[in-house]
Amino acid sequence: MYSSVEETVQARLILSPHRSARLRVVLSYLPEDPFAVRMAFPAEFSLDDVVDDRGGEDIVWVFARQLLSSGLELPAGAGDVHVRPALGRRTMVELRAPEGTALLQFDSTDLRRFLWRSRLVVPEGEEHLHLDADRALAELLG
C-alpha cells in the first residue's frame, strides 16, 4: 500500500494589516482519501470560545487537493475554504467557520512541494483508482 505524505510548514496568521503570528501547520495527504488534503493547526489558534476539552489536539481542516492546487494559480473556492495567490511567492488560505474567519499566508514553494509529493503517491486523475467503495459505504452507514 502507498504511504501517506506529511509535511510541516510555517505560515503566518494575519491578525490585522500590520500584525501577524507565525505558526506551524502540518499538511497531510492520505492515499485512502485521495481527493482530500488536511491542514492541522495548533489548538491554541482555535477560533472556538469553548474551553479546549480536546486535550490540546490540533484543529484539522479537510478540503479538496484540487482546490489547493488551483488556488496557487488563480483564486479558488466557493465554500468554507478559499485559496488565492498573493504578491511574491505567497499563497493565501482563508478558512471560514461560524466562529470567525482565519486568513493564513504560506510560502507557495512549500505548498507546491507538498502537492508534488502527494502526486507521487496518487497522480492527479488517478484518485478513483485508490477509492475503497466498500469502506467508504461502511463509514457512511456507521
In short:
By secondary structure, the protein is of the alpha+beta class.
What would your notes on this structure say?
The protein is α+β, with helices and mostly antiparallel strands and 142 residues long. Helix content is 21%, strand content 40%. The chain contains three helices and seven strands. It has helices at 65-71, 108-121, 133-141; strands at residues 5-16, 19-29, 36-41, 59-64, 81-86, 90-97, 100-107. Strands 4-3-2-1-7-6-5 form a seven-stranded antiparallel β-sheet, with helices on both faces. Strand 5 (81-86) and strand 6 (90-97) form a beta hairpin. The longest helix is centred in the last third of the chain and has 14 residues, at 108-121. It is globular, with a radius of gyration of 16 Å. The two termini are 24 Å apart. The model has no long low-confidence stretch (mean pLDDT 87).
